[in-house]
Amino acid sequence: MPRKLLAILGGLIVVAGIVASSALFTVHQTEQVLVLQFGEPKRVVKEPGLHVKLPFIQNLQRYELRVLDLDPPRQQVILVDQKRLDVDSYARFRITDPLLFYQSVGNEFGARQRLTAIINSSLRRALGNANLTDILSANRDAIITQMTSEVNASVERLGLQIVDVRVRRADYPEQTSQAIYNRMRSEREREAKEARAEGFELAQQIRADADRQRVVIIANAEREAQIVRGQGDADAINIYAEAFSRDQQFFSFYRSMEAYRDSLGQDGTTMVLSPNSDFMRFFNSMSGTATPR
């Protein structure tokens, strides 16, 4: 009898443990719990700690209480000036109403799909009324603020709240970027050709001016040289004339000696002259002098 009583008591303890494990649940501080009964929402539990539910009848749907990230795929947007941009955006959101969230999207996967469509639609509308200058200037914050407000207004019915929406990157499409690069390259090549042509023209002007200055300098130098030679010749003539006027006989003798030296040098020159020629008059004089003629 005691053995049967112990077995019954043990069975009751096991059953009680199973019932207690099914009736008790814990809520972490980073999550919120929706209690369901046969798929019908009954209550929302957000307070962390130990809680009780009906065993075997009610089940739990747990949702994150923390901020979640969303990284929508890159999409192409047409600006108001008809320029195309590949825009890469991201968003952060949280679940504010688990009951409404469960009724509208069910889980995070469905929520991310709905949010992606809403954010992309709002992004196209916001950037479709802006130009590239607005995106690259301080007006970008106003565009993002407007887009965040529109998205929040659209996701309230889903039990969600958008914390932040940002444009991570906005680039031209590959074809447009290549066309812009080719245009910029052509423009730089044109500017380089113009700079080379202007440099060549300037170099030609500098060379022509240098040649002109060279010709002028040489002409002035030759003119000054001719003037100096003329002055030198004039001075030499004056010196010779003065010397001749002082001693005509010595001057005649000196000039004849210079003529002898120049004509009767050591170059093997042979001269045939009459002994009575005027050129040899100083050789005909026995005394070494000759009577001027």
From TrEMBL:
Record flagged with keyword Cytoplasm: no
A Pfam short name: Band_7
Keywords attached to this entry: Hydrolase, Membrane, Protease, Transmembrane, Transmembrane helix
Domain Band: 22-184
GO biological process: proteolysis
Membrane topology according to the record: Single-pass membrane protein
Predominant subcellular localization, coarse grouping: membrane
One GO cellular component, as annotated: membrane
Sample GO molecular function, one term: peptidase activity
Compartments where located: Membrane
Role according to the record: HflC and HflK could regulate a protease.
Family (UniProt): Belongs to the band 7/mec-2 family. HflC subfamily.
Protein name as annotated: Protein HflC
Record organism: Oceanibaculum indicum
